[in-house]
Amino acid sequence: MSEYSLEFALGWESCFEKLDKGIRERVWKKIQQLKVLPHSRHLRQGFDFFVSEVGQYRIAYKVDEQRKVKVVHFVGDHKEYDKWLGL
Question: Which CATH class is domain 5-85?
Answer without folding.
Answer: alpha beta
